[in-house]
Amino acid sequence: MFAAVGRFVVHHPIWVIVAWVIAAAAVIGLAPTLTATTDEASFLPSHYESIRAAELQRKAFPQAATPAAIIVFERKDDAPLTDADAAKVAAIAQALGGQRIPDVLALVPTPPSPNRSIQIIAVQLTPQRSAADQAQADAVQRLRDALPAQLDGSDLKAGITGTAAQALDAQNSGERANLIIGVATIGLILVLLLIIFRSPIIAILPVVIIGLVSQIATGLIAWANDAFDLKTDSSVSAMLIVVLFGVGTDYILFLMFRYRERLRLGEDPKTAMVSAVARAGEAIASAAGAVIIAFLALALSTLGLFRSLGPALAIAVATTLLAGLTLIPAVVSLLGTKVFWPSKAWRHEPRGARFAAIGRSLGRRPAVYAAVSGGALVALAVFAFGFHPNFDLSSGSTATESESNVWSRELLKGLPAGATEPSNVFLRSDTGGPLPSGQLDAYRGELTRVPGVGQVGAPTLSPDRTVANFQVTLADTPQSAAALRTVDGPLRRTAHAAAPDGTTALVGGITAVFVDIQAAVDRDYAVVFPVAAVLIMIILGLLLRSVVAPWYLMLSVGLGFAATLGATVLIFQIGLGEPGLIFILPVIMYLFVVALGTDYNILMVARLREEAREGRSPRDAASMAIRHAGPTVAAAGLILAGTFASLMLAGNSTLTQMGFAISCGIAIVAFVMSLFLTPAITALLGHAAWWPGHEDTGAKPTESAEHP
């Protein structure tokens, strides 16, 4: 099949290129804009308590709004606020309100904090209507623009924090991050491909073609989101950049290394390209298929975040695969050997003996290589047991020095840590009658005595007096592990148990959302991971016609996953003292380390099988596979790890952790697992590795690969 694809593309390259250009123009011109959301609650199903609480709040208090922004004031000399300062804050609130800033509903000054270190103005904004709604962000920006003039001549300084301000800073940080990541990714690909092939044409080729493919993929993802009502997290755009360029460059490398190899064997350029597609196509398609299935398995998630992330990345990989098997061969077949210009190195087999020496050494002592590489992975995997999830995506997605983060920390000088995003306990009458006012004070007292609760506000009653809202300020920051333990444990237990007869209590707020997200994630780990592993093993079994090989390949990938998580825990939690890693990190690692790790395993094992079919013994086959496929795996792994490492330049902790974990995982997969562990185990198992199909024996793949 792949030989037929190669022949068609090589014989009709102009038509293939024109088809891609027309498709790109249609998608770019007609597709909707891809929008993202930072509202974590939008990713949860409706049966979770936090979502039921939010729905009750919308029905019972339609006009009420939790302050979406908070203006924090303190003295420039850090002295306690005076009465004159408090009066100035009230005057500023009145003056800003008088400016009639669009979407600012109310500015409510509060008294100074008990220690008089800070004072706030609570800002109520128009509720966000959709993920693409910029009203709150625009309102915060206008407030920031207007605030300095109000502070002139006073002894006060101020800044704006809160959920809307954090979303604005995350948006600005994301735009800068995407620019930095894009430039770093493209620059790295250009430099590494120049070093590998010594050709500016090959270096530029992935950038131009994948740039075109990325526009098509983004448009298709936007269409899919609209068609299936999916919500895309704000981090997806950054990951799309590195996925498209990283994976796309990998597939181009797989093809170009084979193309160069066939040219060195004496084939003419067109025949060599058909042979390259025929021989590398199966491995590329199988690798991409494993990645796509791994991504699509996230559709089984209960979280909208993962249900949308998986298909989005699957669409990107599928588009890249199609380009790798059609568009790239079409362009290269037009260029012929000029694609290597000005280098002449493609004509001769390199004398570099590094991979040949590694192959010979592993062929002689596979048990030693298996023990050392496997032992190193196990040692790192031990640290994975120390993983602690962190749910602070809002501040984690912005730079530490952003205004919302800076003034969120200043707010802690005078108010409990949970003041920026208080929790809510709703007490609802089950009978439809009004709540007894005498019981509300007693219920508030029970909530106040809950460990981890800083303050409980007086109840606010709905117009029909059937629902009471108790605003609960936690003693810890809303996204912290301590706050989650408080809400998940004593606060929910007390709220439910102390509810008077004939009433029902629901605990809501952002911390409750995170508690429910954790429960959903735990469920997803138990469902999505095993399903994806089984599906990937089926692909491996079909590719290799073996029952044995898929087992040890998946076990090695699982060990690589655990080692990567352990290394990330070691660096960030133990080394840098961070309270935890972003809660979605294991899933992100699963997407890229497990799925892409299978890529490199497939490439190496497919070459092992090819060498064994030439009549070589298992150890000699492992030796030759490392010699021939090792440079491809190393180059692809270096480029892909480097592109994901560019995420660390974004300047925020979320993308820094993602960048390190994924690049570290890919490096482990490429340079430890695929180069050492997998070939060593295959050599040790010998003929048994291919049971029952015994695909290590027989003729070469197809004559059409040799003579298209």
Task: Write structural notes for this entry.
Keywords: Cell membrane, Membrane, Transmembrane, Transmembrane helix. It is a multi-pass membrane protein. This is MMPL family transporter. It is found in: Cell membrane. Residues 202-334 form the SSD domain. This protein is of the alpha+beta class. It is built from 22 helices and eleven strands. The strands form three sheets. Strands 6, 7, 8, 9 and 10 form a five-stranded antiparallel beta sheet that branches. Helix 5 crosses helix 6 and helix 6 (163-197) packs antiparallel against helix 7. The longest helix is centred in the N-terminal third of the chain and has 35 residues, at 163-197. It is elongated. Residues 699-708 have low confidence and may be disordered.
User: What structural class do helix, strand and pairing data support?
Assistant: alpha+beta
Low-confidence runs of at least 5 consecutive residues:
699-708
Q: How much of the polypeptide forms β-strand, as a percent range? A: 5-15%
Gap from first CA to last CA: 12 Å
Proportion of helical residues: 55-70%
Radius of gyration, rounded? 29 Å
Count of helical segments? 22
Shape: elongated
Total number of strands: 11
Average pLDDT level: 83
The description of the largest β-sheet is: 5 strands, antiparallel
